[in-house]
Structure formats: structure tokens, C-alpha cells
Write a structure and sequence with these properties.
This protein is α+β, with helices and mostly antiparallel strands. It is built from 14 helices and 7 strands. The chain has helices spanning 11-15, 55-65, 72-83, 87-96, 106-116, 121-135, 157-161, 165-169, 176-191, 194-197, 201-211, 217-227, 238-247, 261-274; strands at 2-5, 23-27, 30-35, 38-45, 48-51, 138-141, 149-152. The protein has a 5-stranded antiparallel β-sheet with strand order 1-5-4-3-2. Helix 4 (87-96) packs across helix 14. The longest helix is centred in the C-terminal third of the chain and has 16 residues, at 176-191. The protein is globular, with a radius of gyration of 18 Å. The protein binds a DNA duplex (13 and 12 nucleotides) through residues 18-19, 113, 116-124, 126-127, 169, 172-177, 179, 213-219, 222, 235-240, 269, 273.
Length: 275
DNA sequence: GCCCAGGCGTCCC
DNA sequence: GGGACGCATGGG
């Protein structure tokens, strides 16, 4: 086990923030997470966060995954300075305090958000979990109570690419099976190209949107934000559109041009869904 | 039965 | 470029 103390971290809000689909509440203040080929449990008591893994694994895997090098308090302070007159945004930030933008695996993020279209978060989670248990490699990790539990990693691009459409449909993804297959093939053929990873938001987003069948503007923005950590990417889904219509009279708020618009978007998304 | 869910491709203008 | 429409599936 390894513990840290930090503000601006709330595992409950992160788990329900809709950016990741494999963090789940186990009981009370204990959550499980599967990412980057690892399983971990996380317990939060106030500002004390305990991970069911070694310090080495924390430093290598979970510290970057939860973006713990970045000072979110500093970003929020800047947002308050610049957009303090935006009442809705200030309320959303206060409510969502503790949410972070995770540094998730690119391929997992791509496939997960291809699945996400016209689905509820609950339904996305079920599809992703089924896909992992059917086609993902087995991994082992430690819990708080036992030193060994078996889980499944997210499937590799090779694994998904090799599947028939009907096999993908066994995960409950419906018509998105064709999109998943196309995205996996794209990744194997061209995705590991430096173009996508070593370029800025605008270029990366355009590549994703124009080259991958089934990826439009919204999913390209989700992948840019959650899979490439371009913090200016600001996905607009039905919930964000609702906010724009109800609180901004249909016009885009000023903060959406900001370099951390994606983080602010996440606060707003979480706020409007829970309130 | 109906409507909705972290949308997109296609068709048509 | 923008608007209408169909799309698989599960939950309320």
C-alpha cells in the first residue's frame, strides 16, 4: 500500500465524471481501477488517498494516470481570475472540484468513445467491461484484502482487429461494431504514426475525424482531451449543448476558447448531470 | 409502447 | 455548410 495527501483529488467524482469507464465503486470509499495493464484499489479519506500497490507502481503508473504532477488548484485559480463573472461556470467548478483529466491509454480511449455514441455512461461501461472480459488479456493485481485478484486488460489493437463483426457485437455495441473494427485497423495501419502523438490539438483532432470511420467532431475532441491530454479540447455532447442553450442563450461561452477549456467542460458536464 | 443516451454517416439542398 | 433521417441497444 502507498498513501499520498493531496487536495484537488476526488475519486468519486473522477469515477462518475464520464471520461473513464473502468473505475468503479466497490464499497463505501473504496474504488477499483483498471488501466495501462494494471489493477489497483483506491481508498479516500478526506485528502488522504491510499493505493493498494507499491510506491514503485504508483510512481510509474498511477501518478501519471491521475495527472498528479499538474497543479489543478492553480488552473482553477486562473479560471476564477479570468471568468469570475460567469456564475454558472463558477458554480460548476466549485461543485466539480477534485475532478482531474486522466492520462488514459490512447487506443482504449479511442475505442471507448467510439462505443460511447448515443449510449448512456452506464451502457458504455457494460460494453467496455464485456469487451475486456471476452477479448482482453488477463492481468493480476493486489486488493486491500488479498494480494492477488485476476482482471482483464483492455483488448489490444491486434485482438480487436482480428475479430469478426459478429464477435464485436457480442459486446452489445450494435452498429458501432463496424466503427470499432475500422478504428482498430486504422490504429494498426497508421495510428502509431508520430503524426497523431507529436502534434497539437487542431491537427490531431483533424486527423482523427477525417481518417477514422465512425469518429466525428465530438469523439475526436474526447480522444484529444482524454487520450492525448490536449486540455483545450472541448467536447460538446447533448449535455453540454443543453448548458449552452439554457445558460448561454445558444452562444459559445468565452471560456471555451481557453487553453484549459476541456477541464472546465468536465466540471460543467459533471455539474449539470448531478444537479 | 414511448423517449433518451458523452453522435455519426448519408443524402439532399 | 447545414438540416433531416436512420441507426442497435438498454434503461426509465
Amino acid at each position: 500500500m502507498y498513501s499520498i495527501r493531496t487536495n484537488d483529488f476526488d475519486i468519486r467524482k473522477i469515477a462518475y465524471s464520464g471520461q473513464c469507464f473502468r473505475i468503479n465503486r466497490l464499497r463505501g470509499n473504496v474504488y477499483s481501477a483498471v488501466a495501462m495493464g494494471h489493477y489497483v484499489e483506491i481508498k479516500q479519506d478526506g485528502d488522504e488517498i491510499t493505493f493498494s500497490c507499491s510506491q514503485e507502481e504508483f510512481e510509474k503508473i498511477w501518478k501519471p494516470y491521475f495527472d498528479l504532477e499538474l497543479d489543478y488548484g492553480d488552473i482553477v485559480a486562473k479560471a476564477v481570475t479570468q471568468f469570475g463573472d460567469d456564475k454558472f461556470l463558477m458554480d460548476a467548478i466549485e461543485y466539480g472540484r477534485g475532478i482531474r483529466i486522466l492520462r488514459q491509454d490512447f487506443f482504449e480511449t479511442l475505442i471507448s468513445f467510439v462505443i460511447s455514441q448515443r449510449k448512456s455512461i452506464r451502457s458504455i461501461k457494460r460494453c467496455v467491461e464485456t469487451m475486456c472480459s471476452l477479448y482482453g488479456e488477463r492481468i493480476a493485481g493486489a486488493t486491500f484484502d488479498f494480494d492477488y485478484v485476476v482482471e482483464h486488460d483492455f483488448p489490444t489493437p491486434e485482438a480487436l482487429c482480428a475479430l469478426e463483426i459478429d464477435e464485436l457485437k457480442e459486446c452489445g455495441v450494435g452498429y458501432r461494431a463496424e466503427y470499432i473494427s475500422a478504428a482498430a485497423r486504422w490504429y494498426l495501419d497508421r495510428g502509431d504514426d508520430y503524426r497523431v502523438f507529436s502534434t497539437g490539438y487542431q491537427t490531431a483532432s483533424n486527423i482523427l475525424r477525417s481518417e477514422i470511420y465512425g469518429v466525428g467532431i465530438k469523439i475526436a475532441n474526447c480522444v484529444s482531451l482524454f487520450g492525448l491530454h490536449h486540455m483545450c479540447a472541448c467536447p460538446i455532447d447533448v449535455w453540454m449543448q443543453r448548458i449552452i442553450d439554457q445558460y448561454y442563450q445558444g452562444g459559445l461561452p468565452k471560456w471555451m476558447d481557453w487553453e484549459y477549456a476541456g477541464l472546465l467542460q468536465q466540471y460543467c458536464f459533471f455539474y449539470i448531470r448531478e444537479c
